């Protein structure tokens, strides 16, 4: 790419925090069970309210990220400092994990509902510093959204939108209210017909969402708070995948994948992104609040052999001028392979078992780190496979079938810890207790003193835009 730019480094603070973790925090690694009324298995003992969980709160000197794994039979939560099991929660059916937007909770899609799971990491502001607490994780039965065929969950700013594919119902809630165990709904609407869609809450109170049917979808609209359509495009066949980039002086910038090149919402209207190919699909995208560039997959086969295209090129979409460049990594990847680092770094996990860390401005590979055995994309997207999640400057890379988790410092590209996994996970989310996913030390704090978190909302780090593949026939497209 020809654009000039400098990535400003925000130093990772987790190492400082881990060093100050007290023994009492590590002693919390006992096993507890929590359950949701809709998502979890039956049993009154498995249902916990936020108030009940808060009574068991323990103050600690620091927090370490918690790793939530979805697997056959439910969810398991691990302490990232030593891999110990903190919680095991049984859940019936196939479990999907989504970011909530608050950095503390995970939204659990299972059955016909989306339920909040409190991972028990709490950072409370107190003047110029924070106090930290831990508590047992719990699936919160009171914080449940009915959703027939639950689909995408997209946090943006302090709001999160859910989409129910089976009805076209869209629910937007205040993600900051989850800390109080509340589902504070700020908007509800429904598309004209059910379809595999997505909605993104915008900072001005508008709502961007898809329009379509179960047979086809090619339209995206933006509606204001009164439901009036203020922007619309019909030039996005097979629309799937969204990401928010760094906003400009005019407001939010959102990109979406189509089958004839992406579209971009910017300056209050939609713009088509030029591609050279007749068929080009970027159905999985990762944005970052501080980066104008969106990382995407890059598929060009309309009818791939065996129904699955296994690309080696990734896309870098520059929202400043609409240019769309590619980087060939020489090894295939899949939809769970993409994420963003704390400074906007583009992360891609490839089938040769390497984590590739790229400068999104130049497309240059900064680091290549061996993190897994060689692998091939599963035939079904629901099957367990390699995946990654980013929190506090660390890439958590799961080699699922080999039950290994490797932690990589994104700044240096060095793998510094390996954890044996107790289950074979098919999805993973990592929480830190902060919306940004990053811990920051207060500039005025004395050594060993209080720690502060800047409170940025890095959407990409909490997996905004982490898009699961469509149904099998759609992925084949």
From TrEMBL:
Residues 448-471 have a biased composition (Basic and acidic residues). Keywords: Signal. InterPro entries: Quino_amine_DH_bsu, WD40/YVTN_repeat-like_dom_sf. Residues 34-58, 420-477 are annotated as: Disordered. Residues 1-33 form the signal peptide. This is PQQ-binding-like beta-propeller repeat protein.
């Amino acid at each position: 790419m020809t654009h000039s730019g400098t990535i400003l480094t925000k130093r990772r603070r987790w190492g400082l925090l881990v060093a100050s973790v007290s023994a009492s925090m590590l002693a919390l690694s006992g096993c507890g069970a929590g359950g949701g009324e809709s998502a979890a298995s039956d049993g009154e003992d498995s249902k916990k309210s936020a108030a009940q969980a808060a009574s068991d709160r323990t103050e600690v000197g620091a927090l370490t990220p918690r790793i939530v794994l979805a697997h056959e039979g439910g969810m398991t939560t691990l302490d990232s400092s030593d891999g110990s099991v903190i919680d095991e929660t049984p859940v019936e059916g196939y479990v999907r994990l989504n970011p909530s937007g608050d950095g503390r909770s995970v939204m659990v899609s299972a059955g016909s509902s989306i339920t909040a799971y409190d991972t028990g990491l709490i950072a409370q502001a107190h003047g110029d510093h924070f106090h930290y607490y831990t508590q047992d994780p719990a699936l919160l039965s009171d914080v449940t959204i009915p959703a027939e065929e639950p689909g995408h969950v997209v946090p943006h700013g302090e709001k999160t939108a859910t989409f129910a594919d089976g009805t076209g119902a869209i629910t937007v809630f205040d993600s900051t209210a989850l800390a109080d165990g509340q589902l504070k709904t700020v908007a509800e609407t429904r598309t004209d017909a059910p379809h595999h869609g997505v909605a993104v809450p915008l900072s001005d109170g508008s709502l961007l969402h898809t329009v379509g049917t179960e047979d086809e979808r090619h339209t995206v609209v933006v509606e204001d708070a009164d439901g009036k359509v203020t922007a619309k495009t019909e030039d996005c066949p097979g629309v799937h995948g969204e990401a928010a980039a760094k906003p400009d002086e005019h407001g939010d910038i959102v990109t979406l994948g189509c089958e004839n090149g992406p579209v971009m919402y910017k300056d209050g209207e939609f713009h088509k992104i030029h591609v050279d190919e007749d068929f080009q699909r970027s159905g999985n995208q990762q944005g970052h609040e501080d980066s104008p560039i969106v990382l995407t997959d890059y598929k060009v086969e309309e009818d791939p052999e065996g129904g699955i295209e296994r690309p080696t090129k990734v896309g870098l979409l520059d929202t400043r001028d609409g240019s769309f460049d590619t980087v060939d990594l020489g090894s295939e990847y899949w939809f769970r392979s993409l994420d963003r680092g704390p400074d906007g770094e583009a992360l891609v996990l490839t089938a040769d078992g390497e984590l590739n860390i790229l400068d999104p401005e130049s497309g240059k590979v900064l680091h290549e780190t061996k993190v897994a055995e060689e692998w091939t994309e599963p035939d079904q997207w629901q099957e367990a496979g390699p995946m990654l999640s980013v929190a506090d400057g660390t890439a958590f890379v799961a080699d699922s079938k080999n039950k290994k988790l490797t932690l990589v410092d994104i700044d240096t590209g060095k793998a510094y810890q390996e954890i044996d996994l107790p289950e074979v996970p098919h999805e993973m989310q990592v929480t830190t207790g902060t919306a940004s996913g990053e811990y920051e030390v207060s500039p005025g704090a004395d050594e060993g003193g209080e720690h502060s978190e800047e409170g940025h909302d890095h959407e990409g780090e909490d997996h905004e835009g982490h898009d699961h593949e469509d149904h099998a026939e759609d992925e084949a497209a």
